Automatic annotation (TrEMBL), chain A:
Transmembrane segments: none annotated. InterPro entries: AAA+_ATPase, ABC_transporter-like_ATP-bd, ABC_transporter-like_CS, P-loop_NTPase. The keyword Transport applies. The keyword Protease does not apply. It comes from the Bacteria. It holds the Pfam family ABC_tran. One of its GO terms (molecular function) is ATP binding. It comes from Meridianimarinicoccus marinus. This is ATP-binding cassette domain-containing protein. Keywords: ATP-binding, Nucleotide-binding, Transport. PANTHER family: PROTEIN TRIGALACTOSYLDIACYLGLYCEROL 3, CHLOROPLASTIC (PTHR43023:SF3). Residues 12-248 form the ABC transporter domain.
TrEMBL record, chain B:
The keyword Membrane applies. This is ABC transporter permease. InterPro entries: Permease_MalE (IPR030802). The chain crosses the membrane at residues 180-201, 274-303, 323-346, 358-384. It holds the Pfam family MlaE. Signal peptide: none annotated. Keywords: Membrane, Transmembrane, Transmembrane helix. It comes from Meridianimarinicoccus marinus. The keyword Transmembrane applies.
Amino acid sequence: MTGNAPTSRPHIEVSNLDLSYGDFVIQKNLTFTVNHGDIFIIMGGSGCGKSTVLKCLIGLKSPARGIVRFDGADFWSAEQTTREAMMRRFGVLYQSGALWSSMTLAENVGLPLGEYTDLGASEIRDLAAMKLALVGLSGFEDFYPSEISGGMQKRAGIARAMALDPDVLFLDEPSAGLDPISSKLLDDLILELRDSLGTTMVIVTHELASIFSIGTNSVFLDPVTKTMIAQGDPRALRDHSPDAGVREFLNRGTLASATAPVPAQAASGGATEAAP
Amino acid sequence: MTVVSDGISDRTAGAYSVDMRPEGVALLSFSGDWTLQAKPPGAGAITSDIGANTGLRRIGFDTGALATWDSTFVTAILGVVTQSKAAGIDVDLAGLPAGAQRLVTLATAVPERQGARRTATRDGLLVGLGKWWLSAQKSMLETVSFVGEATIALLRFCTGRARFRRVDLMIALEDCGPKALPIVTLISVLIGLILAFVGAIQLRQFGAQIYVADLVAIAMAREMAAIMTGIIMAGRTGAAFAAQLGTMQVNEETDAFRTLGFSPMEFLVLPRMLALIVMMPLLCIYANILGIIGGGIVGVLMLDLTPTAYYVETIASVSLTDFGIGISKSVIFGIVVALAGCLKGLQSGRSASAVGDAATSAVVLSIVMIIVLDGFFAVVTSVIGI
């Protein structure tokens, strides 16, 4: 690792965050800090509200209560225009990639550049080609999203998210639906981008392999108590978390001292998923 | 688990019997095939048989005569187990095949989650009415704010500040214009023909065939051209808009616009609305011409009018005001179609059927609005006397 390893400068501070859809509480009392250069993992069983937390951090869903700060600036109580300016410092990789299907990869990456910079068309195209080359998609500039594989779409999504050289990159289940090799390559890419550009990464995932290989800090959300039950380096949590459920999750349910039956996690998650 | 072969002939349907033993013990014996194809008795029959016995404390199983079994058997056993548990009766699984024992244990390992089961409740009339009113209020509010945002986007476009891709506008223009010509051609000629036929039969009785030209020209110019192009565009373009935007909603593409600070209103709705505002009046003029030609065909071939006479009568009968009314209506209808399609698309839920519903309701909303607005126009024009 180079000089862009995690620092102790807080980048995103979340305090007492409550999230709900109407009366239906998703998560409550979330308090955590993401430092500059962190690869921060938001984890938890399926349906515990990980993606909703992410939606709140990227400005798509307002919280019921609580404060989100980016570099000390309050995000949700800011004016619409200020908030939009703050959002421009984010990059987001959506779960499905969410590439604009009517545009080629180069146009996908180039659109934010065209709108927010004064660059000419050929410069934008060069920059887009460079970003695509960074994620290993050299030569695919003129392909449409539907013409490439799922793993390539994810990588193109990262290229688009990186288009404006964001300070923080949010990734929603980046390795979902990818084979182990593509998933590993994606992890390497995330590490590489963090190391070379110093970008803070916030990743929603439950892929244990990538949690341990890239995560530097994490928060564990519980679907039953609807709040965070653990926080810290995922490797330390795996071995030393005081909560048996967290250790069990991080050890794929094979914890010898586990008391709860194995399928409990999956079953309890499924029911929340169906909620509004 | 025994895998079932498909030999239907050599199968005996599953059967069971309940033997009461002393001290409140019941022995459930199973025989034959308990498979999906063999149609064995269901859990309900067994549990009601058991329930008929009073003073039951314990249930055991005997599966010595059971030939093959699959999940139907496990479901039946599970029914017995669940009901017995609720009634405080012990169930001894030892008599079951080992595989079935494991499956029953697995199915009962995780207790049902509190509050997860959906229970169907029927609302009373007043509750239903109240809910309907609240949702109607919400959707009205959404529609009004959507129209407001669209107006702001249009004003921003007029002052040159709106941001969208020019190529999107070009694609929408092509889609709403040239690509719609064939169907507009067909429908307009047919409408002209139909109007002329309807008029011809009546007018011929008075020897006033020549007035077919007036009838067709005035009807096309004031009403039919605008309405028919509106309805055609609602069906082909409005539905397409709703489906496109709905699919983008499903793929999180609209979210991607929002987080990058692009307004979906300017990026997605504005080009589509502009395309229809530009193309609808052109299509309306085109439909006028073709409708009049269609009427002329009937006039010349059926009523023995000369093309010149028909032309002269047409020119004399309609004024520019008539065309103006039709064309201005077509602009309004274009806006209605674009807004209904985009609104329903952006409101679409995140599933395949939600996108279908969005397209359907976009078409229904557009057509209803077109007819209602046309009625409004008819009243207004007659009151101000044009």
